[in-house]
Design brief:
The two termini are 45 Å apart. The chain is built from 17 helices and 16 strands. The protein is α/β, with parallel strands linked by helices. It folds into 3 domains: 16-131, Fumarate Reductase Iron-sulfur Protein, Chain B, domain 2 (Orthogonal Bundle), CATH 1.10.1060.10; 146-241 and 398-462, FAD/NAD(P)-binding domain; 245-395, FAD/NAD(P)-binding domain, CATH 3.50.50.60. The chain binds flavin-adenine dinucleotide (FAD) and iron/sulfur cluster (2 copies).
Length: 465
């Protein structure tokens, strides 16, 4: 029976004043009864507009109607046909702008909680040992084509998975010591438990994919050397991990971090655990500059690392913030202080060159700029200082230039993003393909996964498989 409630079934969350002291997951997931009730809100629309909003075309009405009948294993199987990482996407996709943004139930109430249900089905399958990951391949023949994948983020993982399923010998080269890309080094444990990512990586290993971590392509080996080694194709999914800075005075002081460095220390290198050896400043007052998901993650991590005051400093207003509404809401609940229409102009240090304060000035919004958002302008004479011990800059990232600098024939654009041909995945170098943030600049998990799959399809076509 259809559930015609206008509002979605709420999902339990850890209490804000408890969760902001630990790194356990914030959103606790649905029970079976809750999942059935929420899935029953789907009207099974003929034209399924929700699917248009999903970059990998998950068969949403089909999986929801199975979930509404309590057939969770079957629902999971449907999702897995198009989405290799549903437990991840169900947690981190910006659903409000994608599948849920198109759901007709959203016209007169709240859209069906598609992401939560996707997460539920994937968690249910894992808990019931039905997590199939990528289907295991039979032992590959000696002459199976070898493909190299550079980078093990969502683009690399989805490309590797599809290639392995279709009979390629895949080696994933990863610069860091653990596979997963931003899923392990950027997005914190309290939003995306790392056990979920490692289960996906294990499933790929079982499917025959080889992971070679601590291997920087462009340093350990060049792309040309990989080609000479006999890799029939190479996929570059190296992301956009090079942090940008504002270029203001004081950025060289001790206690100034890029969000990437801070998050890597806290998440990948587990600085939050008592037994970890990772050095990271446990500051009492922290300023995080930026208004995106990365800024929210850094601020919420800083709070959990023991900071008493954590400020988000953002030069536009809340309306213009690129972060997901849910993340802003969670950050506020956890006691993060928002200084909106505020722009930093200098960071000040003490006699030991450690951060002691930041100067900010008030802003007002003028006419729209090239991005369509209203341009912030400084209010004359409005500058003031905030006492802080650490500053974390989350003002954007770009692709690292290493690969284009060490690979003749691999072209990039002004922003350092790899140039691809009309097919969207072939680079300017023969036999080399690319996708994800390395091509688009910082984007989303699901777009990176879609690009990884599209590249795998192109590689398979080229190999006649
Ligand atoms: P990445 O995930 O960046 O992976 C690239 C991998 O390549 C890395 O592991 C890197 O170490 C490796 N690598 C780089 N160069 C080399 C080399 N030369 N040799 C070998 N390996 C190399 N998106 C969402 O959809 N929802 C969110 O909530 C969200 N939150 C985010 C929070 C943070 C803190 C950050 C930083 C990003 C967030 N994003 C989010 C964006 C999303 O994570 C990225 O768009 C996505 O991970 C891009 O995937 P990718 O595979 O292209 O690159
Ligand atoms: Fe929605 Fe993302 Fe799942 Fe697609 S993959 S249905 S956009 S949550
Ligand atoms: Fe169900 Fe919403 Fe998709 Fe309609 S648009 S099929 S109600 S999820």
């Amino acid at each position: 029976m259809k559930n015609m409630q206008k509002t979605r079934v709420p999902m339990k969350e850890a209490a804000p004043n408890v969760r902001n002291t630990n790194f356990e997951e914030v959103a606790l997931g649905y029970t079976e009864e809750e999942a059935i009730a929420e899935a029953s809100r789907c009207l099974d629309c003929k034209n399924h507009p929700c699917m248009e909003g999903c970059p990998v075309s998950v068969r949403i009405p089909e999986f929801l109607s199975l979930a509404a009948e309590g057939k969770f294993a079957e629902a999971y199987a449907v999702i897995k046909t198009t989405n290799a990482l549903p437990a991840v996407c169900g947690r981190v996709c910006p659903q409000e702008n994608q599948c849920e943004g198109k759901c007709v139930r959203g016209l007169k109430g709240e859209p069906v909680a598609i992401g939560r249900l996707e997460r539920f089905c994937a968690d249910w399958a894992r808990a019931h040992s039905q997590h199939t990951g990528s289907p295991k391949t039979e032992k590959l023949p000696e002459n199976a084509p070898r493909v190299a994948v550079v980078g093990s983020g969502p683009a690399g993982l989805s490309c590797a998975g599809m290639l392995a399923q279709n009979g390629c010998r895949v080696t994933v080269f990863e610069a860091l010591h653990a596979p997963g890309g931003v899923l392990v080094y950027g997005i914190p444990e309290f939003r995306l438990p790392k056990s979920i990512v490692s289960a996906e990586v294990e499933a790929l290993r079982e499917a025959g994919v080889e992971f070679r971590c601590d291997t920087v392509i462009g340093r350990s080996y060049t792309i040309d050397e990989l080609q000479e080694e006999g890799y029939a194709a190479i996929f570059i999914g190296s992301g956009a991990g090079l942090p940008q800075f504002m270029g203001i005075e004081g950025e060289g002081l001790c206690g100034v971090y890029s969000a990437n460095e801070y998050l890597t220390r806290v998440n990948l290198m587990k600085a939050y655990r008592k037994d970890a050896m990772t050095p990271v400043l446990r500051a009492r007052r922290v300023a995080v500059i930026g208004g995106g998901n990365v800024a929210m993650d850094a601020a919420r991590c800083a709070k959990r690392m023991g900071a008493e005051e954590v400020y988000i400093i953002y030069r536009r207003g809340e309306e213009e913030m690129p972060a997901r509404r849910e993340e802003v809401h969670h950050a506020k609940e956890e006691g993060i202080l928002f200084k909106l229409l505020t722009n930093p102009t200098a960071i000040h240090g003490d006699e030991n060159a450690c951060v002691k304060a930041i100067t900010v000035e008030k802003m007002e919004l003028g006419e729209p700029d090239a991005s369509g958002r209203r341009r912030p302008q400084a209010v004359p004479g409005s500058a003031y200082e905030i006492a802080v011990d650490a500053v974390i800059e989350a003002v954007g990232t770009r692709p690292n230039p290493l690969l284009r600098m060490t690979t003749p024939g691999l072209e990039s654009d002004r922003r350092g993003c790899l140039v691809v041909r009309e097919d969207g995945v072939s680079t300017t170098k023969e036999g080399v393909f690319a996708g994800g943030d390395a091509v688009t600049g910082a984007a989303t998990v699901i777009l990176a996964m879609g690009a990884g799959k599209a590249a795998a399809a192109k590689i398979l076509e080229g190999l006649g498989m």
